[in-house]
Amino acid sequence: xxxxxxxxxxxxxxxxxLEEGQNFVLVxxxxxxxxxxxxxxxxxVGQYEGxxxxxxxxxxxxxxxxxxxxxxxxxxxxxxxxxDYVPFEDRTDKTKINEDAEQxxxxxxxxxxxxxxxxxxxxxxxxxxxxxGVGIEAALNLDEIDLETIExxxxxxxxxxxxxxxxxxxxxxxxxx
Length: 177
Hints:
Blueprint: H1 7-20, E1 25-26, H2 31-34, E2 39-48, E3 51-61, H3 62-81, H4 99-115, E4 123-127, E5 134-140, H5 147-159
Parallel strand pairs: 3-5
Antiparallel strand pairs: 1-2, 2-3, 4-5
Helix pairs in contact: 3-4
């Protein structure tokens, strides 16, 4: 059985939330993003199909979500052209970097942002088949995610009052060195 549905785990998380004085606990495996205020990983207790459950959530800015999609699309195009290109997440200290492929990647990203090739809107994806509890991936059109944003997101989500902006947006982030 999924441990995120077990009463014992739920009670443990409730106690941690109480100790923290908030309706969630941060999961500290994503520290490098937290400082930027664009991304947080946290857990909270809510209802799923009438049962109490732990939600394991990732909340990001819509801009960061857009950047990820643009980068992924550009990387896929580069991999088709440069067979020796190694995706960023697969690299090690010994990976040989193809400078031409890197240059093309940056140019594609710039071009896609300029042409507004990819457009995104606020979303909440719920994954009931998650390893621990129910997974949530969400993005909101905010400049920054902070602890108050997370509190409000959870309160609105749990109350069924979360309103998402379905307007399509494109962002220009600029990956200059």
